[in-house]
Predict the structure.
Amino acid sequence: MTNQFKLVSALLCLAFGSSLLSTNNVSASHGSVSFTSVPEQTQERPAEQAYKNIQVFKGLTESQLLGAMNFMTGALGVGCFHCHTNQFASDDKLAKQTARRMIQMMRTINQTDFGDKLAVNCYTCHQGHVKPAVAPVSRPGSDAMTSKTETMPSVDEILNKYSDALGGKAKIETIKSVAMKGTETAQTGSDPSSTRQLEIFRKSPNKLLVVFIQQGNSMFQAFDGKIGWRKNGERVSDLGGMDMALARGEANIFKDIDLRPQFANMALVGKSRISNRDVYIVEGTLSDDRAEKRLLGINTEWLYFDVQTGLLVRRILEWKTVLGPLQSITDLEDYVSIDGLKIPSTLRTLRPPTTLIQKFTEIKLNTSIGDEIFNKPDVKK
Ligand code: HEC
Ligand code: HEC
C-alpha cells in the first residue's frame, strides 16, 4: 500500500515538479487509498489499464491522468477529496460524476467551436471556485461579513438613523420641490467621455423634468405624474418601456429618502466596506408598484448605509438578461447640507457598459416651480 502511494506521489512529482506535492491529497491519513498495483516500468501504461474506472480519460498515460487531476483541483480550488472517496475508482461522489460531464462538455465546445484547440478549459469558467460566477460584478452581499460578537441594528434602526442623518422627519416633510443644476459625464467602454449640462426639477410627489444642454441644444425628458415624454428640438414623443419605467422611478421626489414603501420586504444582510468605510447592506424585495418591477421584472435591490454617518451611500438594482443577471450600481456621494437637509451632490451610476457621473453645483429646496413645465408640450401636426 505505502509503495503504491509513493508511486503516485512520484508520478505527480515527475509530471509537475515537487511543488505540486502539496496538492497531492492522497495523504497517509487516507491510508486505505487503493490503486491497482502499478508495476515499476519505464514505459507508462494507458490510464484505463493502470486504473479501474476510466471512462472519459481513456488513452491518457498514467501521469497525464494525474496531471489532469491536479489541474482540476487548481481550477476549482478544491482538494482531491472533493470528487473522490478514499476508493479513487468509486463514483460515489456526485462531483466526480459531474466532472465527467464537464470534461465531455469542454471537449464538445473545443471541438465544435474552436477547431479542436484547447481554448476553453475548467478554469475558463471556474476561476478557482466550485461554483462559477454568473454576473460581471460580484453579487451584492456576497462579501458581507459579520462577527459573531457584534450586535447588529434592525432594519428600522438603520432607516431611522438615515432619516435623522438627512435632517429628521419634520424637515423631510417640508420638501415640496428640488431644483438642481450641474453636469453629467458619460463614459462608455473606452470611448472618449462626453459631458453635458444638466438641470433637474422635481416637484412633490412625482413630477420630474430633466433638461440636458449640449452645444446650445436642449433636450427635455419629463414625467408629469402620469405619462413620460421627451422633447428633442421640435420633436416630441412619449416615453415607453424601460425609459418610462426609469423616469417614473426617478420622478418620486422621496426616491432616495423614503425607502420603506419601495419594498415589500427588507432584511439586513450584514456589514461590508466601501472605500474604507463600514457599511450595512440591506436587501429589499421590490414592492409591486415599483415600475422597475412591473416593467423590467426587477425583484431585488440592495441598499448600503454608512455605519458611522447613517447616510445611504449605494443602491444596487439587479435585473435578469437572457445571458444572466446584470447590476446597476448607483453611488450617492458628497452629501451637502441645503437648508438643513442633506442631499448627495454627486451621483455615480454604473450600468454596463456606461458609467454616468452627475455632479450638482447648485441645489435649491422649495423654490416655486409651476406645474406647467412638467406637461407635455403641444405639437402642431
Ligand atoms: C473535479 C473532480 C476531481 C478532482 C478534484 C480529482 N479527481 Fe480524480 N477523477 C475524477 C474523475 C471524473 C475521474 C474518472 C476519469 C474517467 O472517467 O476517465 C477520476 C479518476 C481518478 C483516478 C483513477 C481511479 C480509478 O481507479 O479509476 C485517480 C487515481 C484519481 N482520479 C486521482 C486523483 C487525485 C490524486 C486527485 C487530487 C490531486 C484527484 N483525482 C482529483 C475527478 C476528480
Ligand atoms: C463553460 C463553463 C464551464 C466549464 C468549461 C467547466 N465548468 Fe464545471 N461547472 C460550470 C457551472 C456553471 C457549474 C455550476 C452549475 C450549477 O450551478 O449547478 C459547474 C459545476 C461543476 C461541478 C459541480 C460543483 C460541485 O458542487 O462540486 C464540478 C465538479 C465541475 N463543474 C467540474 C468541472 C471540471 C472538472 C471542468 C473541466 C474539465 C469544468 N467543470 C469545466 C461551468 C463550467
User: Anything to note?
Assistant: Residues 72, 76, 95, 98-99, 102-103, 106, 120-122, 124-126, 130-132 surround heme C (ligand 2) (CB under 6 Å). The first strand starts at residue 177 and ends at 188.
